[in-house]
Amino acid sequence: MSKKPYYITTAIAYTSKKPHIGNTYEVVFTDAIARFKRMLGYDVFFLTGTDEHGQKIEELAQQEGITPKEHVDKVAGEIREICDLMNTSYDKFIRTTDEYHEKAVQKIFKKLYDQGDIYKSEYEGMYCTPCESFWTQSQLVDGKCPDCGREVKPAKEEAYFLKLSKYQKQLEKYVLEDNPEFIYPESRKKEMYNNFIKPGIQDLCVSRTTVKWGIPVTFDDKHVIYIWIDALSNYITALGYDPDGSGELYKKYWPADCHVIGKDIMRFHTIYWPIILMALGEPLPKKVFGHQWMLFGTEKMSKSRGNVIYAEDVVKEFGVDGARYYLLSEMPYSSDGSVTYESLIERYNTDLANTLGNLVNRTVAMQKKYFGGKIMPPCAKQPLDDEVISKCEQTPKKVEQLLEQYRMAETMDTIMSLAKRANKYIDETEPWVLGKDEAQKDRLATVLYVLLETIRYLGVLLKPFLPETSEKIMQQINCDIDTWESLESFGRLQVGVTVNDPVPLFARIDGEKLLEEINKRIQEAKKAAGETDEPQAEVLPQLDQITIDDFAKVDLRVALVKSAEKVKKAKKLLCLQLDDGMGGRQVVSGIANWYAPEDLVGKKVIIVANLKPVTLCGVESQGMICAADAPDGSAKVIFPDQSLPCGSKIR
């Protein structure tokens, strides 16, 4: 019986620079889904790759004194190395400079032009180089790019346009009626429809004459094909799509089951891409899933601050599966996640070393100690065992339900909760006490069988997410029954088999020592770069001038700190309960390195009261505390006059 095909993709990474650990989240997330679908019996094709054309690449190469091709070869190599380092099981790695892709894109452009869906005109507007996007004056936000907030420049040039407006009603019908789960989750769908589709879709500029680093238009050599037709087409060119006759992979796997992308490029994938496919007469993807961003603590990552974290940095200290687990478990479903070394250490030690690693190690060790490693039949069951057995059998079903909704962090919590239940079971049954009483030998054998079979469940459940750890678990309990089907009923672990010697899965990390080493490396890197050791205030470029109306948009208020406590998942964060004169609010601030909770209680602070709420390490923050950067790198909270009433507005 042939397997059902399943096609899943990441967005292709832009080759401007080496991606940091936050960028790595997407390919690890997609890999976990791909591995899971393979376990369910699907014939999976997993695509990732790199986006390599455009003005930004051209400018970066010029700054480096090399050709654009030399630049993208270097960065694409780094991106692929990261995919391999993170043990991702992609089936193909596409580069948009691949010859077959460029030829297919040229044919796509020509087909759309020949049938009247692309026409020549002139573009005059504002251009954002980082986003490779044109904007009208009315679309700008405070005179800046509405997507990234950067500067835009006036641009006027001859260009070809794609008739997006022609397909407005067809797209609306597909999104609202024919395939209501096409844009996922629901919040993304509402955003795309209300903000971009419903107001009316404008025709799209799809060529450039002022950029040379791109795929040439075959019938007009002054033009290169604009990056979005080029980049988006990778999803079909990788499968051998050709307007003149597509290959077998395309016929087998298209349409894609899911495009996994960041929330910042939803518009391109849910408006431009579907319309391109409609114009080509090809089926549309079944789903576009837009995930949140992985941030870096409470501040933007930058090399000057010394807080850039790359995948290899995390793997070096925590191992591949340690890095994978952190990424998959730390990103909330409906809010941005954050990366700090403090939270990395905390999650690694708590979940992997203590909960999972300790469970496997001490269970296998007890089986060795009391029965020479031989797995004995469970013949003295009690109601307590049934609780654990029931949780084992229910966990795979819950995992399937969660992954259908791409709720990855909740999936990891669900699996880890089974390990926690098994540890509790050890405390409840006290095998070391049973081992002292010969009359309790059957009961001891039963307890250890339940534990080992639970560990087998964990080994199988973790296979798509922590593949190396899963293999080590199955090796220690000397079991090769690792299919998803084997989790349908408890008791597949074979009696009479001898377990292997216990080997720690995850060595506990000395957090303070590691943080000292990391800080030392950061300081050494700064010193090597010629930075002075003397404390100096960081000289930041002055921002553009604003009007009084711009300043009035920021609502600064006086608030009293009623209580404060450290956030468990992050050593840098404090959670403050404030009296803001408006009913009270909770604010999370990254100042725990410089202020103890008791230092703040009873003091008045200045808050940004109209900042959009965010979730940091699982705790909602409804504003921001105002602080200044001190010369020694610390943050100093700004305390206003204590006589000011709560809620007083700063003007």
Account of the 3D structure:
The chain is an alpha/beta fold and 651 residues long. Among the domains are: 340-533, Isoleucyl-tRNA Synthetase, Domain 1 (Orthogonal Bundle), CATH 1.10.730.10; 548-650, OB fold (Dihydrolipoamide Acetyltransferase, E2P), CATH 2.40.50.140. Helices cover 42% and strands 17% of the residues. The protein is built from 20 helices and 26 strands. Strands 1, 2, 3, 4, 8, 13 and 14 form a 7-stranded parallel beta sheet that branches. Helix 10 links the parallel strand 13 and strand 14 (288-291). The longest helix has 31 residues, at 341-371. The radius of gyration is 28 Å and the shape is globular.
Highlighted features:
651 residues, Isoleucyl-tRNA Synthetase, Domain 1, OB fold (Dihydrolipoamide Acetyltransferase, E2P), seven-stranded parallel β-sheet, six-stranded antiparallel β-sheet, 20 helices, globular
Strands, count? 26
Estimate the helix proportion, in percent: 40-55%
Strand content: 15-25%
Shape: globular
The structure class reads alpha/beta
Main beta-sheet annotation? 7 strands, parallel
List the helices and strands and how they pair.
Layout: E1 5-10, E2 13-14, H1 21-39, E3 43-51, H2 55-64, H3 68-85, E4 92-95, H4 99-114, E5 118-128, E6 133-135, E7 153-162, H5 168-178, E8 183-184, H6 186-197, E9 204-205, E10 207-208, E11 215-216, E12 224-225, H7 227-232, H8 234-237, H9 248-253, E13 258-262, H10 266-280, E14 288-291, E15 294-295, H11 311-330, E16 337-338, H12 341-371, H13 383-404, H14 408-429, H15 431-434, H16 441-461, H17 467-476, H18 511-528, H19 548-552, E17 556-566, E18 574-579, E19 585-589, H20 597-600, E20 604-608, E21 614-616, E22 619-621, E23 624-625, E24 627-629, E25 635-637, E26 649-650
Parallel strand pairs: 1-3, 1-13, 2-3, 3-4, 8-14, 13-14, 15-16
Antiparallel strand pairs: 5-6, 5-7, 7-9, 10-12, 11-12, 17-18, 17-20, 17-26, 18-19, 20-23, 21-22, 24-25
